[in-house]
């Protein structure tokens, strides 16, 4: 997260860290039920279930809370690693986790919020695109403003037609998600609105953060939640 501030897991209790067995954080995710985590497909491509751990209920990615193994994973078969269309996947945890002050399931948005709506993105990703050596240990949060995909693909911004209808953008001067935040939550009205997906760099002028649009991908998430 670029331009954010330290926060606590109690303020964002749906946030999880996806880690390797070594303890290195590689992506974020969101807890949506007692045993399901939503993340980005691009976080899961080429990854073995047995190589992943999920840390829940901790402000710091490297200690505390619960560290849980993964039983199975799936990502959208319409995911396109060239265009990043449909960048959504699911992890089924090996154990069921109860809700608490620091662990809470987040509902999926049914509609994409309109352009201008504030939303909060959180994660343990890098705080600066060029000169940051290590990830912040403490969870970071920043408010960005929703830009609908058509506006994001218009001449107002720099991406053009590479922004697709399964995507939604978030923009605010000098504030953005960044490398290591991928898969993590964009939240408005206490609902999961987006999944951190991509961008050209981080916090660049007229270069919004791009998120998988949860409302657009909701039916895939619900169908696959049943089968995992
Ligand atoms: C990344 O590389 C990444 N500014 C994530 C988010 C954004 C850019 C890059 C959005 O994981």
Reconstruct the topology from this structure.
Layout: E1 5-6, E2 15-20, E3 25-31, E4 36-39, H1 41-44, E5 52-56, E6 66-75, E7 89-93, E8 118-123, E9 140-147, H2 149-152, E10 167-171, E11 185-188, E12 191-198, E13 209-213, H3 214-227
Antiparallel strand pairs: 1-9, 2-3, 2-5, 3-4, 4-7, 5-6, 6-7, 8-9, 8-11, 9-10, 10-13, 11-12, 12-13
In N-to-C order, the SSE pattern is: EEEEHEEEEEHEEEEH
Radius of gyration from the CA trace? Answer: 16 Å
Total count of helical runs of at least 4 residues:
3
Poorly predicted runs are: none
Biggest sheet character: 6 strands, antiparallel, barrel
Number of strands: 13
**Which structural category fits the helices and strands?**
mainly beta
Order of strands, main sheet, comes to 8-9-10-13-12-11
Measured between the Cα atoms of the first and last residue, the distance is 31 Å
Helix content: under 10%
Global geometry: globular
- Distinct ligands: 4-(aminomethyl)benzoic acid
Arithmetic mean of pLDDT: 97
Percent strand equals 25-35%
Explain what you see:
The strands form two sheets. The protein has a six-stranded antiparallel barrel with strand order 8-9-10-13-12-11. Strands 2-3-4-7-6-5 form a six-stranded antiparallel beta barrel. It contains three helices and 13 strands; from the N terminus they run ββββαβββββαββββα. The model has no long low-confidence stretch (mean pLDDT 97). It has helices at residues 41-44, 149-152, 214-227, and strands at 5-6, 15-20, 25-31, 36-39, 52-56, 66-75, 89-93, 118-123, 140-147, 167-171, 185-188, 191-198, 209-213. It is mainly β. 47% of the residues are buried. It binds 4-(aminomethyl)benzoic acid (4AZ). 4-(aminomethyl)benzoic acid is lined by residues 176-179, 181-182, 196, 198-199, 202, 209. 4-(aminomethyl)benzoic acid (4AZ) is lined by residues 176-179, 181-182, 196, 198-199, 202, 209.
């Amino acid at each position: 997260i670029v331009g954010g501030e330290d926060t606590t897991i109690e303020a964002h209790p749906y946030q999880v860290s996806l880690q390797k067995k070594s303890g290195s954080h590689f992506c974020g995710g969101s807890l949506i039920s007692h045993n399901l985590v939503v993340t980005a497909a691009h976080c899961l491509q080429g990854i073995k279930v047995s190589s992943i751990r999920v840390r829940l209920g901790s402000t710091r990615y490297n200690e505390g809370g619960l560290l849980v193994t993964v039983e199975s994973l799936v990502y959208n078969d319409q995911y396109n690693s060239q265009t990043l269309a449909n960048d959504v996947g699911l992890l089924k945890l090996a154990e069921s986790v109860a809700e608490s002050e620091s662990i809470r399931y987040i509902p999926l948005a049914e509609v994409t919020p309109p352009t201008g709506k504030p939303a909060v993105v959180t994660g343990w990703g890098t705080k600066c695109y060029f000169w940051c050596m290590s990830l912040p240990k403490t969870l970071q949060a920043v408010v960005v403003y929703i830009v609908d995909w058509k506006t994001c693909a218009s001449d107002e911004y720099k991406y053009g037609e590479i922004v697709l209808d399964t995507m939604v953008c978030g923009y605010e001067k000098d504030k953005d998600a960044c490398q290591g935040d991928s898969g993590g939550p964009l939240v408005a009205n206490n609902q999961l609105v987006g999944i951190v997906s991509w961008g050209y760099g981080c916090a660049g002028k007229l270069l919004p953060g791009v998120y998988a649009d949860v409302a657009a991908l909701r039916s895939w998430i619900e169908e696959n939640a049943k089968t995992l």
